[in-house]
Structure formats: C-alpha cells, structure tokens
Amino acid sequence: MAEDKFTAIIVGAGPAGSTAAYLLAEQGIDVLLIERGETPGCKNMFGGRMYSYALHRIIPEFWEEAPLERQISREVITMLDGEKSTSISCQDENWAKPPYHSFTLLRAEFDAWLAAKAEDAGAILACGIRVDDVIMEDNRIIGIRAGDDEILADVVIAADGANSIITEKAGLRSKLSPADLATGVKEVIELPAKTIEERFNLQPDTGAAHLYAGTCTQGMSGGGFLYTNKSSISLGLVIKAAELQKNQYMLVDLIEDFKNQPSIAPLISGGEVVEYSAHLVPEAGISMAPRLFSDGILVTGDAAGFCINLGYLVRGMDLAIASGEAAAMSVVEAVKKNDFSAASLGIYTDLLVKNGVWSVMEAYRRAPQMLDTERLYTSYPTLLNNLLADMFTIDGSPPINLIDKLRQEVKNSKTSFINLAGDAWKGGRSL
Ligand SMILES: Cc1cc2nc3c(=O)[nH]c(=O)nc-3n(C[C@H](O)[C@H](O)[C@H](O)COP(=O)(O)OP(=O)(O)OC[C@H]3O[C@@H](n4cnc5c(N)ncnc54)[C@H](O)[C@@H]3O)c2cc1C
After folding, report:
1. Residue 1: what pLDDT?
2. Which residue has a Cα nearest atom 5 of ligand 1?
3. 301 lines ligand 1 (CB under 6 A)
4. Which residues pair with 80 in a beta bridge?
5. Is the pLDDT confidence value at 425 over 90?
6. What is the pTM of this model?
C-alpha cells in the first residue's frame, strides 16, 4: 500500500541521481533518493577519470572537499601489437591549474560523498532498496514499487544506470540489445604512491590517463584503460558486448592477457589486485536514447544513454552530472507551475541543449559506427607498429624509403590505401 508521497523520487544514487537530489533539496523540494546498494557507489564502477567542469558548476571548487585521487596532467594513447607498441603522449600545464581539467577517483568513496551532499541539503536517502517497477495511472507515472512497498511522487527521475529498469517499465524504451552496449571489466591494483610516481613520472598530486587499442581486445571492438590513483592503478578493458558474446571470450582471460602485455606488465609489477568488477557501458550514443520524459517521469545519465566512448576518451560522469542538473531544474520549473505533465517536463530537452549535454551527443552521433570498423583493432595497430619499429631498427639491412615501407606494410596488413583514406575521413568526421 502507498504510504508516502514526495514531490520527487529519484531512482539511483550514482552521479546523475545524487546531483539531481542535491539540487532539488537545495531548492527546498522534498525528494527521496533510492539506491539499491547498501551504500551509494558500493557496487558502482567506471574506468577512473571524471572531467571537472560539470561538478564545478554545481559545487564550486568541489576538489577542496571531494574524495579525489589525482588530477590528470598527462594523456597517453598507445597502439598495442604484441611485442610492439607505439604511444602518443600529451601534457598541458593548464590542466593542472584550477579549475582542474579532470581527476581520477574511486566510485565507492566519491558516490557516497555526493549522495551525502544531497542528504545534507535535505534529501532523504534510502539505501538497500531495489526499485522493481513504476506505478502508472491513466498513462502517467505516479510513483514507484519496491517489493511490497509503493511510494507516490509527482515526478520520478530514472537515474538507475545503463540497464535502466525504470525506463523500460515506464515504456520509454524497449529492451537493450548487446549491439547498444559494451562490457567493462576493471581491476584496482594497489602499489605504493611513490612507486606510481616513479613509474609514471608524476608528482604527488598529478596523475596519468592511458588508453590502449590493438591486441588488448584480441581484434574485438574496444580498448583498454589505465588510470593512476594515489596508491593504486585502475586497469581494465571495454569491449563491445555483441562481439564478446560472439567470440565467447572470458573477461578474466582477456584482462590477464592485457596485464601481461610487455608495455603494461612493468607498470603494474609487484602490485596487488584489491578489487575486480564488471559493468555495462551504453555505447550506441544518441541513437539508443530513450524517450527522455513523459507524464511524471524524466530520464538522466546512463539510463538516457548519455555516455560517449571515442576510443581516446570515455565520458559519462560529466554527462550524468550535467543531465542530473537539467532534470532537477526541469522539476523546479514544474513545481512552480504545479504541472508534472509531459508538456511541462519537456523543458528538460531545452535545458540539456543549454547545458551542453545534447550538443555532445549530437557531435559524436557517428562515433559508434566509426568505432565498429574492425581494421582499427587489427590491421592498423600492426601497420603503425611495424612501420615505426622498422624506422627505428638499424640492423645493417639496405634501407627502404618511408613511402616504400608504407606500401609494404599496407600490403602486409591486408588493407589498402583506399581503406586507410576512407577510415581517416570517417574518423575525422566522427570524432
Ligand atoms: C568500464 C567503464 C569505464 C568507464 N570509464 C569512464 C571514465 O573514465 N570517465 C567517465 O566519465 N565515465 C566513464 N564511464 C561511464 C560512467 O561510469 C557512467 O556514465 C556514469 O557512472 C553514469 O552515471 P549514472 O548516475 O547515470 O549511472 P550509475 O553510475 O550507473 O549509477 C546508477 C545507480 O543506480 C542504482 N540502481 C540501479 N538500478 C536500481 C534500482 N532498480 N533501484 C535502485 N537503485 C538502482 C545503482 O546501484 C547505481 O548506484 C565508464 C563506465 C564503465 C562501465
């Protein structure tokens, strides 16, 4: 039986849900934030880095109080091909100055902190409760169901992540297919802070973000990541779920192979694995977005598909926070009008455009198809590594000029200049 009624119920205390709860509570709106984990973030995982701008807009200078690991001062992209690897490294001193560009963090601590901010602002946080369904009346969402409990609300915000049950039950989206998703697997490997700083050439507060393509995914669409925390390393893989299913690889084997790659092994040597986790990543971009609002409901963060994987970066935390912000502002407007209909909540899409989330999703609309190009994970890493390894290998053989070498490598890697030009054009338009 329904016992309570709130203005807003938010399902999921990840970054999207806690941001929305914080902003609503700050406006004096009664809000219930429901989380299935025993504590917010206890089961949540991600690669390891959050871009700062969105949270800085909501909690200025959040780095003074949030549990963060290191601010990223170096980006490295590496193409792996067995014994060979080629890296591009980029550093910008501006990233290390306030407002810092991005931070590594661990979700169990960070999500708990953000949810506590919402609680301090006045939201009610209920943990250990899994929401099973929405309550519908005359095609309008009027609350949620968790086991035998029913709780009513003027509006429900679905912030329950990639595999959102709320969005599905509310009829805003059909079941996701493996083609829309990637599977992420990650280990947290403990190492002394000083060892990390020496191995990655870092200062006590600075950190590095490494992304990998090539043999780490055994030719499947996806890539690897490595982020430095204070005294641990977050290391993992993100691989297209449909390809994992087709090839029947075990994640544990893939991550073991990745850890044994010659350019990874020395970086984690002597470390102790203290955490292993796996999670879905919504990867199909704007094409998998559900209906974002309806009578009595809004959808935010991963539940709305607001996550971008470009190969050289993964963004979801900032988009979750920014979409949580837009959802909260939409509810604030709806409260003023006392109108929670779709017509009133439709302001959400305007706010997503205004705060930049929608333009990010639009800009990278072609990225998922581009990243499906098999050659990115097979021929190209081999081609690039062979070309460069040849260039730097001096063994007394007669030298071959660079153009001839390129021709030879293109032929050896079973691709063509037409493919190369076409993929470069596709890549340039998509990223
Ligand atoms: C392997 C991997 C690497 C990634 N790397 C990065 C990265 O480096 N940088 C980045 O910005 N993003 C990254 N992302 C994406 C990022 O993690 C997500 O975009 C972000 O966490 C989305 O936030 P959210 O609040 O929408 O959802 P989530 O963080 O998934 O939070 C959803 C919350 O809802 C709760 N919940 C779910 N169902 C229910 C229910 N029925 N009832 C109650 N509670 C429920 C969950 O327990 C969870 O706390 C990565 C993701 C993965 C999987």
Report:
1. 43
2. 47
3. yes
4. 85, 214
5. no
6. 0.94
Containing structural domain, residue 385: 378-430
Q: Is the peptide bond before 266 cis (omega within 30 degrees of 0)?
A: no
Task: Dump pLDDT digits (tens) for 336-375.
Answer: 999 999 999 999 999 999 999 999 999 988 888 888 888 8
CB 380 within 8 A of CB 79: yes
pLDDT tens digits for range 226-259: 999 999 999 999 998 888 888 888 889 999 999 9
Q: Which residue has the tokens 């947290």?
A: 188
Mean pLDDT of 111-136: 98
Q: Which residue CA neighbors atom 15 of ligand 1 most closely?
A: 316
The answer to whether the CB of 311 is under 6 A from ligand 1 is: no
Half-sphere exposure of 63 (CA within 13 A, CB side): 21
Domain membership flag for residue 248: yes
Residue type, 202: L
DSSP 172-187: SS----GGGEEEEEEE
- Alpha helical stretches, state H, 304-401: 317-337, 342-345, 347-354, 357-363, 367-370, 379-392
Ligand 1 atom at shortest distance from the alpha carbon of 306: 19
116 with 186, same domain: the answer is no
Q: Which two tokens stand for residue 165?
A: 């049950």
Residue 328 belongs to domain with CATH number: 3.50.50.60
79 located within any domain: no
Statement to judge: residues 168 and 228 lie in one domain: no
Answer yes or no: do 162 and 196 share one domain: no
* CA 264 / ligand 1 centre spacing (Å): 26
- Express as a percent the part of the chain with pLDDT over 90: 71
